[in-house]
Amino acid sequence: MTGYRLGVLGGLAVLLALLMLAASLVGAYPLSLGDVVAAVGRKLTGATPQGQIDTVLFEVRLPRVFAAVLVGAAIAAAGAAYQTLFRNPLVSPDILGVSTGAGLGAVLGIFLSLPVVGIQLAAFVVGLATVGLVYAIASVVHGREPILVLVLAGVVVGSLAGAAISLMKILADPYDQLPAIVFWLLGSLSAIRKGEVWSAAPLVVLGLVPLVLLRWRINVLSLGDEEAKALGVEAGRLRLFVVAAATLMTASVVAISGVIGWVGLVIPHIARMAVGPSFDRLLPTAMLLGASYLLLVDTIARTMARIEVPIGILTAIIGAPFFLWLLAKGREGWS
Amino acid sequence: MSAPMLAAHGLGFGYGAKAVGRDVDLAVRPGEVLCLLGPNGSGKTTLFKTMLGLLPAQAGEVRLEGVPMVQMSRGEIARRVAYVPQAHAAHFPFRVLDMVVMGRTAHLGLFAAPGEEDRRKALAALAALGIADLAENEYTRISGGQRQLALVARALAQDAPAIVMDEPTASLDFGNQVVVLAEVKRLARRGLAVVLSTHDPDHAFSVGDRVALLDDGRLIAQGLPAEVLTPERLRAVYGVSVIVERLSQGQTVCAPDYGAA
What tens digit of pLDDT does each residue of B100-148 get? Predict the structure, then answer.
């Protein structure tokens, strides 16, 4: 690894640390640096918590900061994996139908008035099932371009799931369930609780481990199945495994944050511009970048106006034009 | 005689249920260059893909050092036979060195990434083909000929005793064709078994120890270049008249006979 790439990673890590510190200070109940240091000190030494400061920091502010970091890193990692795997820079959790599928599961959970854990589980199960269905369709349809078939299957199944979501919106109780569904579909970290971060984090790590371990083979797979096989990689099996891992990461964070679009598409692009397409370098860069980006946007979302703007709206407003710019600029991120 | 490095026995090949060719018997031994000639659509690429285990054999079998390929894992196959596909555009702008280092994959553990030793071998392969100065360039921004050379370098880095090359000279200018063919000769002298397809009978004359002529999925002749590539056979396969001449320096060349066409 060259000095430049280490510099990029180090710089991004410092940036993330600074953003996390800043994000834990600002908010409806501003904290000073001294407050935070003292509160963390009390927590570490096991001293008795003191009033509102500790409650705000440990029950509200930090869970949300960690949630943003977790969600941003997970979606960016999954996006980087999908893009490398499917040799298509336009592929992302959104395109493959994972996000919409997980969304459908969560809406179903809200519709059936399940408890929060039930909603998470439903999002996860339906998200995985959606990818399974997309994959099954792609393997049954023998096109000349398997990747294209897969992406198109993702779009089709995704829009089918979207229709199912619309149906449930119509059927839902307009005073109680509908606002919850709409808010969740917009994507937001405002309702995050400490327990939810703790329940999603192990699943994200579980999905991340294979991506890190198989980093080099994922790279080789980006040459296409035939070449990867000729280079000694069990392409079909590896792809299935990595898709499952990336989907696990996506579905487990979508379950707690709702549908936050564009991050999985745009962030890996920027990371590729910075450190090149090699997955062993792309993965950590995309994760740090995704975590910083989502934390920044979420902090803006909760502080810029008196009412909170759902983060999914902000990421779309920032992401869509940025992606168009990437498209027009071309060449840098892919050939 | 030693067991052939790579051999096809009664091989039938094609995509899915569709048969492209059948009854192909081929063998290439260490230190030998086998040239496969055949018109467009005769099934050369499909045959190669089947011999590399990328397509299942429809009949017969492929053996590597006498062992049936179906009993081997991808890694075991890749350590025995390397593949040089026709030059293509990559989807991501990998550096040329990264691309060549990928040839080392079959020698790495499942969870490993290439180390210094692998990078050194990749650089040596690039140097052997005279393109060491391209190492840091983006693969997507070099010329088609340079890409083809980089893919040959990747196969060298793979360190397999057999190499299958699908029209390695197709997109190259005259000078680079000679560079690649000279490298093919040197590989054979180092004891590698090389199979390559080409559209140019001259290439078969200049580097081929043996030539196989494929037409409509069947081998119609196999043997020494001078025995196989006769004007009569070339006319039968390609439908054009040619003159085959032995030059005073010893090379044999083949030229179209426009007067007779």
Answer: 999 999 999 989 889 999 999 999 999 988 899 999 999 988 888 889 8
The helix or strand, by DSSP H or E, that contains position A311, with its residue range, turns out to be helix A311-329
Q: Which residues of B touch A139 (CB under 8 A)?
A: none
Q: In what helix (H) or strand (E) does residue B62 lie, and over which residues does it extend?
A: strand B59-64
* pLDDT band per the 50, 70, 90 thresholds, residue A334: very low
Say how far residue A111 (Cα) sits from the centre of its chain: 24
Residue B12, beta-bridge partner list: B59
| CATH code 1.10.3470.10 for A56-329 | yes
**CATH number of the domain enclosing B69:** 3.40.50.300
Residue A244's CB: how many other CB atoms inside 10 A?
A: 15
Using the beta-carbon criterion (under 8 Å), do A230 and B111 form an inter-chain contact? no
Q: Do A225 and A138 form a contact (C-beta atoms < 8 A)?
A: no
Q: What DSSP string describes A222-241?
A: TT-HHHHHHTT--HHHHHHH
Residue with tokens 């032995």: B246
pLDDT tens-place string over residues A53-93:
888 888 889 999 999 999 999 999 999 998 898 877 777 88
Q: Which residue of A has its CA nearest to B81?
A: A230
- Amino acid letter for position B158: Q
pLDDT at position A255, please? 81
Q: Give a yes or no: residue B74 inside a domain.
A: yes
* SS3 state of residue B166: coil
